[in-house]
Design goal:
The complex is a heterodimer of chains A (about 100) and B (about 475). In chain A, about 30% of the residues lie in helices and about 5% in strands. A two-stranded antiparallel ribbon of chain A has the order 1-2. The longest helix of chain A is centred in the first third of the chain and has 18 residues. Chain A starts with 7 loop residues before the first helix and ends in an 8-residue tail after the last strand. With about 475 residues, chain B is α/β, with parallel strands linked by helices. Chain B has two domains: about 350 residues, Amidase signature (AS) enzymes (Alpha-Beta Complex); about 80 residues, no CATH class. Chain B is built from 15 helices and eleven strands. Classes of the chains: A mainly alpha (about 100), B alpha/beta (about 475). Chains A and B meet through helix 1 and helix 2 of A and helix 9, helix 10, helix 11, helix 12 and helix 13 of B.
Chain lengths: ~100, ~475
């Protein structure tokens, strides 16, 4: 990976972010600096070390399988930018 | 002004309530006055609702643990009926919380009144609060300088006496570092000590809510109320919640205090170093035993953090799609364009940078080299602390290598900004607790006095010990009582 530079346009597309040309240029330079810095971890031998996802053990927490009130439709929709017939309005995903 | 309730600590305010000297409504009115007269140039608050707070004050029971005590809330914790902007244009003016975060439920049950939503770096991403997408803020000790971040507003309002106390959140130092820069007490609890339900997630394995206060006594009171398990957060620990006030004996005799040799090598501002050396001597005089310890992977902490935190952020912020809440692009060319434009218009530079970095380190071909490797180094960092805490009760260091820096000084160089978090970040990676308390001031090049914070780190669930030390320090010094000159 020695000569890898981040392709900001490609990654921004994965992240669903529209960037201006100016942003692409500025972020490329800043992110390459940061990536250069974080690559110092490559110098560390981590053979046999367990990867840690959480600082404390995380368990599934079980509760009785009983129905209980939720927040309800109107509450869920309260902040929707667009809604109709008690549902979120989404942008069309199939070709017409 | 001199008798305004806004100048008081929680403990002092409660004394006044219980002796009949003041009522909660009078105190809330004092705080509203102080915000209206002084917050314009400081920018601690994004919004506040005086009528709602007064109504709650009139109905409050001062005999409850925090009865009638107004608490300022960082603007990424949901309070039903209030905005929750996360200092982002994405949510500004378009979002109203439909539920209370667990910490708010607990505060209400204890009689407290949420009053005011505090400014911050957008989505808690930053170390100076300059990344607020909504309004600038300033350090009350020197308005040319930053308050620190990301919980900058919570530290400003406590330091400038426009709040009694506040809640912040700490993902890599976001409570302790602004507390240090503004001269307040800040506590980051052990990961899982406090429920994160209703906290807008930045990096879920690192985030913790905690208090920013005028004294460690107040931090103990608040922590006792907001801690505990929560069926709505599987990472909230079920461990017993003690009354942390009972830990504040003032006695630190025989406690073993570790100085990590890697923290005291270079890069600490000489003025800060002098304050910390004096503070360590002071702890020794109080009877603590000072021991050198080693945290050998310290130099890797910032790199590890910025891989893990951004990876988690890129996943957490995927929910901001302009469908269920927040900014929605009105003109677009299909669904992907809808997402790209809604997000581009809503997020600021630092949030975009971190989402891109996080997406990159998780992307195909890079995941193992960056993210998984960072998780392994995180294990090494946690093990460093476990070894050190087998020898000492707590670890002491500066909270930050410098005092508050000038606005704009680091904002064009994100990497320099990240390196300012060197002493606070490892605690989040290891999941341990830590506090910052004022331990001196350093004169800036323009002649202003700037506060310095002493950081005490303790093992998992040792908040009682950490607060015992900061409280003992406060009982025998007066740095925490000093106020910015204009107050």
């Amino acid at each position: 990976m020695d000569n890898d530079k981040i392709d900001v346009n490609y990654v921004a597309d994965l992240a669903r972010l529209q960037l201006t040309d100016e942003e692409v240029e500025r972020f490329s330079s800043q992110l390459n600096d940061i990536i250069g810095y974080v690559r110092q971890l490559e110098g560390l031998d981590v053979t046999g070390i367990e990867a840690m996802a959480h600082a404390t053990p995380v368990y599934d927490i079980m509760r009785a399988d009983e129905s209980r009130p939720g927040n309800g439709t109107q509450c869920a929709l309260a902040n929707a930018p667009e809604k109709s017939t008690d549902q979120f309005r989404v942008t069309r995903v199939v070709e017409s | 002004m001199s008798d305004s309730a806004s100048r008081l600590s929680i403990v002092e305010l409660q004394k006044d309530y219980r002796s009949g000297k003041r009522s909660p409504a009078e105190a809330v009115n004092d705080i509203i006055d102080s915000i209206q007269s002084r917050d314009e140039k400081l920018g601690a608050y994004i919004s506040f609702d005086p009528e709602a707070a007064l109504k709650e004050a009139e109905a409050s029971d001062v005999n409850l643990p925090l009865g009638g005590v107004p608490i300022a809330i960082k603007d990424l914790i949901n309070v039903e009926g209030q905005p929750c902007t996360c200092a982002s244009r994405f949510l500004d003016s378009s979002y109203t919380s439909t539920y209370d975060a667990t910490v708010i439920t607990k505060l209400r049950r204890a009689g407290a009144i949420p009053l005011g939503r505090t400014n911050m770096d957008e989505f808690a991403m930053g170390s100076s609060s300059e990344n607020s997408g909504l309004k600038p803020s300033a350090n009350p000790w020197d308005i040319e300088r930053v308050p620190g971040g990301s919980s900058g507003g919570s530290a400003i309002c406590v330091a400038s006496d426009t709040a009694i106390a506040a809640l912040g959140s700490d993902t890599g130092g976001s409570i302790r570092q602004p507390a240090s820069f503004c001269g307040c007490v800040g506590l980051k609890p052990t990961y899982g000590r406090v429920s994160r339900y209703g906290l807008v997630a930045f990096a879920s394995s690192l985030d913790q809510i905690g208090p920013i206060t005028k004294t460690s006594q107040d931090a103990a009171l608040l922590l006792s109320v907001i801690s505990g398990g929560d069926p709505r957060d599987s990472t909230a620990l079920d461990a017993d919640v003690p009354d942390y006030s009972n830990s504040l004996s003032g006695d630190v005799k025989g406690l073993r205090v570790g100085l990590p040799k890697e923290y005291f090598t270079s890069g600490i501002d000489p003025g800060v170093k002098t304050c910390i050396d004096d503070a360590i001597s002071h702890l020794e005089k109080l009877g603590a035993e000072i021991v050198e310890v080693s945290l050998p992977h310290t130099e890797y902490a910032v790199a590890t953090y910025y891989i893990i935190a951004t990876a988690e952020a890129s996943a957490n912020l995927a929910r901001f799609d302009g469908v269920r809440y927040g900014n929605r692009a009105t003109s677009h060319d299909g669904i992907l364009d809808h997402y790209r434009l809604s997000r581009a218009a809503g997020f600021g530079d630092e949030v975009k940078r971190r989402i891109i970095l996080g997406t990159y380190v998780l992307s195909s071909g890079y995941n193992d080299a960056y993210y998984v490797r960072a998780q392994k180094v995180r294990t090494l960092i946690r093990n460093d602390f476990a070894t050190a805490f087998s020898e000492v009760d707590v670890i002491v260091s500066p909270t930050a290598p410098t005092t508050a820096f000038k606005a704009g000084e680091k904002s064009s160089d994100p990497l320099q900004m990240y390196l300012a978090d060197i002493f606070t970040i490892a605690a989040n990676l290891a999941g341990i607790c830590g506090a910052s308390t004022p331990c001196g001031t350093v004169q800036s090049d323009t002649g202003t006095a700037l506060p310095v914070g002493l950081q005490i780190l303790g093992p998992h669930l040792s908040e009682g010990t950490v607060l015992r030390i900061t409280d003992a320090f406060e009982k025998t010094t007066d740095w925490h009582r000093q106020r910015p000159p204009s107050q």
